[in-house]
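Task card 7
Instruction: Convert sequence to C-alpha cells.
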Amino acid sequence: MPTPPPTGRSPYHRVLLKLSGESLGGEGVAGLNAVEINSIAQEIKLAHASGAQISIVVGGGNFIRGADLAKKVGIDQVTADQMGMLATIINAMALREALQAAGMQSRVMSAVEVKQVAEPYLRLRAVRHLEKGRIVILAGGTGNPLFTTDTCAALRASELQCQAILKGTKVDGIYTADPKKDPKATRYEHVTYTEAMTQNLKVMDMAAFDLCRQQKIPIVVFDYRVPGNIRRAITGEKIGTLVSAGET
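Output:
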C-alpha cells in the first residue's frame, strides 16, 4: 500500500501522470504533433522542479484504439489490443526524446519486451530510476490485452507506491454532465471512489477506479493544457476534481 500523503492536499513526493495518446497529437488528428509534445515536456520539467518523482503512463489512441479497431476492422480483440500497446511505446519514445531535449533524464520502460528501443519494466529498477531523479515513462500497458492504460496507470501507481495519480484531460475536472452539451453542468471538487463508480463517471474505467479504491490512491483529474497545472496538481493546489476515499 502506498504511503499516504500528508493531511489535506499537500505536495506529493511520488506521482504517476496519466496522459491520453491524443494529448501528443493535434486536435482531431492522428499521429504526433511536435508542438504538443514539446509543450507537455516543458510542463513536466516545471513540475519536476518541485522535487517530486514523476512516472508517466501514456495511451496510444492517437494511433490505435484496440476496441475501435476490433469493432470497425474485424481484427481479433487480443490482436487489436496488442497493436494498441505497441502504439503506446511509440508515444513513450517520442515523449522521452522531448524530455531529453528539454534537459530531463528519462527512461522508457515497457511491459512488452522490445529491448532494442526500451528497457523492460522491472518494478525495483523503475523505483531506482525515480530515486535518481529520472522521469520514468511506462509503456506497453500492463503487457496483457483487454486492459486499458487507465488500469495500467492504477496498477503501476500501486506497484511504485505513488501517492497520487494525476489524470490529465482536456476538461478541468469531473462534471455532473458533459459541459459541452449541458450548460448547467457543474464541476465536482471532490467525489469518492464509490460515487465515481456508482455514477459511472467516465473519467477512468471501473477496474482502474476499483484498484485505486483498494489501494487508497487519490486521483486528481485536471486540465493538463493550462500552463503550470501539472505542477499545481503535484504541489497540492486545489485544481480540477479530487477522487479519494472520503472528505478532504
